[in-house]
Q: What sequence folds into this?
């Protein structure tokens, strides 16, 4: 099995970072998206947030405009992390080299752990391990925003096989962890948010 993370950590990931430059219009779209998501927390807004797979930090740039939460991120691509650092988005204490299967953070150390268009690139054989790590590091909330399909299906991605899958990702978490419950969920429509057509779900650990 070829691990897609190796692809993203190399030249392919470098090219993606160059295509997804931190233009103001891109950050505005993320800000609109996050304003909707943060409203879902009500008065329980998280005080620490970890993004798994941040690339050049578009979500982090948007979050900085909306919340006082302490922000953290994990990213396997060196050039993407360097962009985050050189742009002053985060410092080395808050963005770390790593991958979803082995998050370099303590158990229950983040109130919210999230992915945005990342789980779709995790090989199905590794998805359970990534979910376990996100669950371990989260003390309360998990949010996933990914392409949806009722049944797992693989699609070609930029001429590559074994690099993109659609499925019910939130359902995968709910089936795997019995104490997770959905707080709210929704659909991101490209016509209004302008990023991708994707479903999202905010889940909470309940006693």
A:
């Amino acid at each position: 099995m070829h691990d897609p993370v190796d692809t993203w950590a190399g030249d392919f990931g470098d090219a993606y970072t160059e295509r997804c430059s931190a233009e103001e219009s891109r950050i505005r779209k993320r800000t609109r998206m996050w304003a909707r998501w943060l409203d879902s927390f009500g008065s329980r807004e998280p005080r620490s947030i970890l993004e798994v797979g941040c690339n050049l930090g578009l979500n982090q740039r948007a979050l900085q405009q909306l919340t006082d939460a302490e922000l953290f991120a994990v990213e396997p691509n060196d050039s993407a992390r360097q962009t985050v650092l050189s742009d002053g988005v985060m410092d080395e204490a808050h963005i770390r080299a790593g991958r979803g299967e082995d998050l370099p953070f303590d158990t229950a150390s983040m109130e919210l752990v999230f992915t945005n268009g990342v789980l779709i690139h995790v090989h199905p054989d590794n998805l359970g391990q990534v979910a376990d790590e996100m669950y371990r590091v989260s003390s309360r909330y998990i949010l996933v925003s990914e392409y949806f399909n009722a049944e797992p299906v693989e699609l070609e991605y930029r001429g590559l096989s074994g690099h993109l899958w659609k499925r019910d990702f939130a359902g995968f978490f709910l089936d795997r962890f019995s104490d997770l419950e959905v707080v709210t969920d929704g659909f991101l429509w490209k016509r209004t948010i302008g990023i991708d057509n994707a479903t999202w779900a905010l889940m909470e650990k309940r006693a």
